[in-house]
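Database export, one record per block. Field names are fixed; values are copied verbatim from the stored entry.
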Amino acid sequence: MSICKWLSISLLLFCFSCDKPLPTLEGIDLEKWREDKNACKNARSSMREAIDSQKEELLALDQMQIVGLLGKPDQNELSSRNQKFFYYYLTPAPACGVASDPGALKLVIRFNAVGLAKEVSVE
């Protein structure tokens, strides 16, 4: 085996072995969570306490891992210094078209410039 092939395989294995494993979030039905876009079906509101108590489990995950776990965010925002925010509504969003609270609760995940979850909060 040539040295280039060996280095390529070693590098590939190293990259895949460094990922933080996806957490298991107790009390959160991830299938229902993903299906409840903008919390319009109000399924996420019953999971609020569970997500609030386990939000630290999401820290240091990268953007793709978060999407793999929670699904595509309801909204995202690119901020200064290449920071990115993902928003997942916990109560019905204004986009639901029903008489929803304009100050709807949401899970906010802030990613740093290298794409790792730096801060997780419920606002």
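Remark 1: The chain has one domain: 23-122.
Remark 2: The chain has a mean pLDDT of 86.
End of record.
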